[in-house]
Amino acid sequence: GRPRVVVVGGGAAGATVARHLALESAGAINVTLVEANPSYTTCFFSNLYLGGIRTIESLRFGYAGLVSAGVEVIHDLATGVDRDNRTVTLSSGAVLPYDRLVLAPGIDFVDGSVPGWSIDDAEIMPHAYKAGSQTVLLRRMIEAMPQGGLFVMIAPPNPYRCPPAPYERACMVANLLTQVNPTAKIMILDPKDKYSKQTLFENAWLQHYDGMIDWVNPEFGGADVEVRPATMEVLIEGEAQAVDVCNVIPAQRAGAIARIAGVTDDTGWAPIQPDSMRSAVDPAVWVLGDASSAAEMPKSAVAANSQAAVVVQSLLGDLAGADVPPAIYVNTCWSALAPEDSVKLGGAYEPADDHIASTGSFISRPDEDAEERRLTYEESFDWYDTITADIFG
Ligand code: FAD
């Protein structure tokens, strides 16, 4: 019969693979997508929702476009992978056989990475780093802050999804607060001593939100932080600080099913072959998106979507004997600093001996004028429409 490909995870990585594999193989490959949720809310642009620029509904996508492309979509959690017998087990008890498996489960959080916080505390101190109800909760909490209140973010250590996103989030929270609570303060407690697009963000904080945002680096206790959800306190170098909102973004690792499948290493991420995104430990498995160790490529939706194109060609070559073009990867991450003011960062990547290596990069200049920033802002909206159409049809 037709070769069976099972894709686990219907996000930026997995949905792109499933849809394009079904379309490009024109029915010659049986493609099944296993996705836990009936709809997908994009993390990308979720900061713009926090900032009052987008609605949450505008970030939500269903899977009808995949079904009409010929993908069999199963909404269930994959709970087990038997690589010897090539099967995936679902929480319903169903067992799906595969010839080739694609794992694209995104991220999970590292237990205990922020002392005092566990995933059970996410209703009190939200992460909002998987979009949906967490993002809505965080926005409600921001809107309910007392006048002059304090919003604290615990920023994550490297590597994590979307390196500029915590700092874009600070901009967008500040954009909302300047309208509803102009004396409120934002404090970012950071375990890193530098971060993505730092100069551009620091300039924006001065230009648009002067005095509102305070970035606390490790030298001043940003790395020595503990939280107390029960009393809404943050301990900085042992000293208690009362907070009104606390956004805890923990350390991250590959989504659990990658570890269950035995394709992650002791970094918590899945090593891959750089020319194909094929798992380094099992040639019948591909891992892509945030869950993979893509070396110099950041964890972004654009990166995941670009890796997906490589995976589709690799699978068509493997299963249908098609010629496989050389792998080329790209990334661009836009960040909204304020309405009509965005910056971007990007690059191109190619396989090197044992990893994916950068072949060139670009970043917005600090001295750009307002018109150039406005064009970048508008470009980001076009990008959002283009990439979500490519992922979901
Ligand atoms: P995901 O998109 O998270 O998809 C994983 C899917 O797998 C989920 O739908 C999940 O439900 C499903 N899943 C997991 N485990 C299982 C299982 N066992 N069984 C069934 N289903 C499962 N990127 C950009 O390019 N540009 C941006 O501007 C940008 N902004 C961001 C802002 C924020 C605040 C955040 C948090 C991220 C941002 N990103 C951005 C990053 C981007 O969202 C991720 O890099 C991207 O979603 C990764 O795609 P993925 O498919 O690997 O994972």
From TrEMBL:
Keyword entries, A-Z: FAD, Flavoprotein
One Pfam family, short name: FCSD-flav_bind
Domain Sulfide dehydrogenase [flavocytochrome c] flavoprotein chain central: 135-250
Residue intervals of the Flavocytochrome c sulphide dehydrogenase flavin-binding domain: 325-392
Coiled-coil positions: none
SUPFAM superfamilies associated with the record: FAD/NAD(P)-binding domain, FAD/NAD-linked reductases, dimerisation (C-terminal) domain
Record-annotated FAD/NAD(P)-binding domain positions: 4-116
InterPro entries with a match to the protein in the record: FAD/NAD-bd_sf (IPR036188), FAD/NAD-binding_dom (IPR023753), FAD/NAD-linked_Rdtase_dimer_sf (IPR016156), FCSD_central (IPR049386), FlavoCytC_S_DH_flav-bd (IPR015323), FlavoCytC_S_DH_flav-bd_sf (IPR037092), SQRD (IPR052541), TAT_signal (IPR006311)
Full protein name: NAD(P)/FAD-dependent oxidoreductase
Organism: Albidovulum marisflavi
